[in-house]
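Hi all, posting the design record for the shared folder.

TITLE: backbone redesign
STEP: 1 of 1
STRUCTURE INPUT:
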């Protein structure tokens, strides 16, 4: 029984150490929101849906009503299987199976710098009643994480 207790305490200690490392990480660079397009979004699945994934105006996967929103679009290659390379933006080899370009879409968010309130549409921000500068900043919900910001991709 003591071996199990020892193993369990080691797992707990390792989990706490990893959690502490994640808490210390500084936020990455914000997304530049360079490419924006209209999309049909499933709020339950939290994914954009194409026409083939819709049943009328509902998501085929979960039958939830979808909504039309603006999304930030980024294309990247998350990894290269042949060369053990990390994220990159251009194909590094000629193989059809190695460097596969992925498109990642993230909903746009508008945030008031004065009161901190956010919304998916600028006109729908419900500002605080107190007087403040209503300067609105556009970003995507995945801002600060690759490929929507974060560590620069080489």
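Okay, here is what came back for every position:
SEQUENCE:
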């Amino acid at each position: 029984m003591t071996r199990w207790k020892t193993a369990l305490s080691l797992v707990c200690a390792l989990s706490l150490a990893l959690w502490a490392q994640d808490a210390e990480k500084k936020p990455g660079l914000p997304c530049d929101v360079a490419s924006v397009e209209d999309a049909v979004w499933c709020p339950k699945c939290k994914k954009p849906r194409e026409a083939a994934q819709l049943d009328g105006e509902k998501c085929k996967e979960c039958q939830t009503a979808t909504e039309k929103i603006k999304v930030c679009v980024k294309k990247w290659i998350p990894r290269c299987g042949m060369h053990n390379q990390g994220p990159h933006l251009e194909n590094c080899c000629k193989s059809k199976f190695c460097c596969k370009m992925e498109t990642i879409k993230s909903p746009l968010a508008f945030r008031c710098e004065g009161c901190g309130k956010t919304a998916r549409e600028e006109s729908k921000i419900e500002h605080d009643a107190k007087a403040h500068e209503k300067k609105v900043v556009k970003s995507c919900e995945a801002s600060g994480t690759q490929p929507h910001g974060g560590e620069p991709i080489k």
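COMMENT: The two ends are 50 Å apart (CA to CA).
Let me know if anyone wants the other runs.
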